[in-house]
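In this section we walk through a basic example: taking a raw amino acid sequence and producing a predicted 3D structure, encoded as discrete structure tokens. The instruction is simple. Fold the sequence below.
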Amino acid sequence: MFQRNGVSIRPMELDDIDRLYDWHRDLEIESGAGWSAWMSRARFVHRYEEMVREPPEDFLLFGIEYEGDLVGYVELAEISRIARRAAVGFVVGDRGRRRRGIATDALILTLDYGFALEDLERIYAEVYTFNAASAALVEKVGFRHEGTLRQHEVHQGRRTDLAIYGMLRDEFYERYPTVLPNLGRE
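The resulting token sequence is shown next.
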């Protein structure tokens, strides 16, 4: 478990399924994240158990804890060990804990983990252009807007632009000290 300002990230567990399923059904989260259609609980549980027991080689999923409670998750996806890059995604599912800086700290911890322990050189975020809160968060952390893919995704039946933000390892360690002693650059 890695911690920053009372926020920690940890591996997801099978006991987290009920909370994750509640977030999966939250329309506010879905509208910003662009998930696929809702799944039955049985299908969701099956998919999640498989992801925890035998995670794909190109995917890491961490729970975000605050004050001892699971409040969200953050992921590194599409990890390329050859190109040394990954995409990052995040959700604070607990409505009462949103807009408190929790996602900011969780994102910083995840970047540190990806750069220091996974030896990545680049981490990027894909953000729907209508999702101002996520765009503001990645910019606040230090991601650079690299471009916009016009009408790149279909979200809720409509073509939607997708903004691409990137962070390089050196840029990250110029802004933040590592919480992983002797592994990252300070």
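Looking at the output, two observations stand out. Strands lie at 2-4, 7-11, 60-66, 69-80, 85-92, 122-128, 144-155, 158-168. The CA atoms of residues 176 and 186 lie 7 Å apart. In the next section we compare this with other chains.
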